[in-house]
Design a protein that fits this description.
The chain is of the alpha/beta class. The protein has a domain of 204 residues: Vaccinia Virus protein VP39 (Rossmann fold). Strands 3-2-1-4-5-7-6 form a seven-stranded mixed β-sheet, with helices on both faces. It has a two-stranded parallel ribbon with strand order 8-9. Strand 1, helix 1 and strand 2 form a beta-alpha-beta unit. Helix 1 crosses helix 10, helix 3 crosses helix 4 and helix 8 packs parallel to helix 9. The longest helix is centred in the middle third of the chain and has 17 residues. The radius of gyration is 20 Å and the shape is globular.
Length: 350
């Protein structure tokens, strides 16, 4: 995969001091397949260590980024001290880690989880994120963090939990919050996510500013996937190399009569048909909830979903079809990640 790097990042702004310096590192927590990391890499950061509990996501990350920097880690049982030791043994060491990025699993908050509740054990991963941020501040004096989650984290039922999370995250950082929609950043998808950025309190750089919408016409499903060849239909045991066009251009064989009748039911989540001339609905699927292709004859392929998320064309995901569904559903859209990384870079490191 080709990662573009902003050259201005590597030099002092003073003409007499035009000397390269080591780009700052970020620790990526709950890295998944690497959508958030792509944005920071494109803006000149490095990621010496990435962590996730999903083995397929870790494999996807490492097959797209050199160095095998992603590791399978249960962040609920791994202490901040242990994670700092792992970072210390990474390329560049823990002292080069200047920030932490990541989005803890959101199922405990998401309205897509009908059984959600504030005490969902998965919510504790958000508190563990705060523990790690504060530990790395104490040990390595990191300058920032970036936290991502679903907008439902702001719901009334989550207020007590969110208040505690904010309290923990603001121990050493001034925090800034904003909801962003991926469609405002060149992504052909309506995907709203809540972001919290923390800037170290001893940084005298004014108020942090979130990225502004690119403006202009939003990209549509047609812009992203019209004209692609038909995907490969799932067969048990198939190898990625056997899938034509792209290793992830595959989907389930359509079996429901709804695919041949030309009629999709109104409402519900199982048969949502996309519109060519509009942005996609949010790419967040269950195994039987992958959106229906605009032609109505099948569900989207994984590769088509990747394009609706704004992933590079050369990016590939590993694992079973269901594992890939999970990875693409959980990912931060890379163009949104890059817009945020650019703002962090400008605020702290330019």
């Amino acid at each position: 995969m080709n990662i573009k790097v902003s050259e201005e990042f590597f030099y002092s702004s003073e003409p007499e001091n035009l000397k390269p310096f080591s780009p700052p590192g970020v620790l990526s927590l709950f890295c998944g397949a690497g959508g958030l990391d792509i944005g920071f890499l494109n803006q000149g950061f490095v990621v010496p260590l990435a962590a996730d509990f999903d083995a397929s996501a870790v494999n996807s990350y490492n097959q797209n980024h050199p160095g095998n920097t992603a590791v399978k880690v249960d962040l609920l049982t791994t202490t901040p001290e242990e994670l700092h030791d792992m970072a210390a043994n990474s390329q560049g060491g823990a002292e080069n880690i200047r920030g932490i990025i990541g989005g803890p699993p959101c199922q405990g908050f998401s309205r897509g989880n009908v059984g959600r509740c504030p005490t969902d054990p998965r919510n504790q991963l958000a508190m563990r994120y705060a523990d790690i941020v504060n530990y790395f501040y104490d040990k390595s004096h990191i300058k920032f963090f970036l936290f991502e989650n679903v907008p439902e984290i702001l719901a009334k039922r989550n207020m007590q939990f969110l208040s505690l999370l904010r309290e923990q995250l603001s121990t050493n950082f001034n925090i800034y919050e904003k909801e962003l929609n991926a469609s405002d950043f060149g992504v052909p998808q309506n995907r709203r996510r809540h972001f919290i950025v923390g800037i170290c309190k001893d940084v005298k750089a004014g108020e942090f500013e979130f990225p502004m919408s690119l403006g202009g016409a939003v990209k549509t499903v047609s812009d992203a996937i019209r004209g692609l060849p038909e995907p490969y239909f799932f067969q048990r045991g198939v190898k990625a190399a056997k899938i034509p066009y792209h290793p992830n251009h595959w989907t389930m064989q359509p079996k429901s009569k709804r695919f041949t009748s030309g009629e999709m039911p109104q409402g519900g989540r199982s048969f949502i048909k996309l519109d060519w001339d509009k942005p996609s609905r949010t790419v967040a699927y269950g195994n039987r909830e992958i959106h229906v292709h605009p032609n109505g004859s099948r569900r989207l392929s994984i590769y088509e979903a990747m394009q609706l998320q704004g992933f590079p064309y050369s990016y590939t995901l590993s694992g079973s079809l269901s594992a890939q569904v999970k990875q693409i559903s959980n990912a931060v859209a890379p163009p949104v990640a890059e817009a945020l990384a650019k703002c962090v870079r400008k605020h702290l490191f330019s």
